User: Fold Proteasome subunit beta from Pseudomonas soli.
Amino acid sequence: MTTIAYKDGVIACDSRQTRGGSIVSDDVVKCQIVDGVSFFLSGAVCDEKALIAAYFGTPSPVPVECSGYAVDGGRLIMVGHDDKTGVWKQDLDPANPDAIGSGSAYALAAMDMGASAEEAVRAAMKRDIYTGGKIVTFCVAG
Assistant:
């Protein structure tokens, strides 16, 4: 999967992509920009386009197994998909740290102890085999 962390106006993510128990690449950019909205997604890579399309109003006829953050007009939004309601969006409080992905528990614990978003992803990389590669940071305009 991956680890994506948010704290103090910064989103940090690793660059590892996995398939099953294998590393596919350690050089993947986790930010996709579509129509001015930045997406940082975790989960099934093959479902990312369907989630983004659903975000903009095109429903997916099949289950979508990914979720993540969208930065839309300066708003930080958690976005996902479920079988009953389709796409869902939840505004996040930019004052609260947050993390998603397989290493999210490690990242959240690190941020609770004072780590930045980048340091939190680095902490997750130490214990989560699905988090690795390089760490990239993005500033969230508010």
Summary: The first helix runs from residue 48 to 55. The first strand starts at residue 3 and ends at 7. Residues 3-139 form a domain with the Glutamine Phosphoribosylpyrophosphate, subunit 1, domain 1 fold (CATH 3.60.20.10).
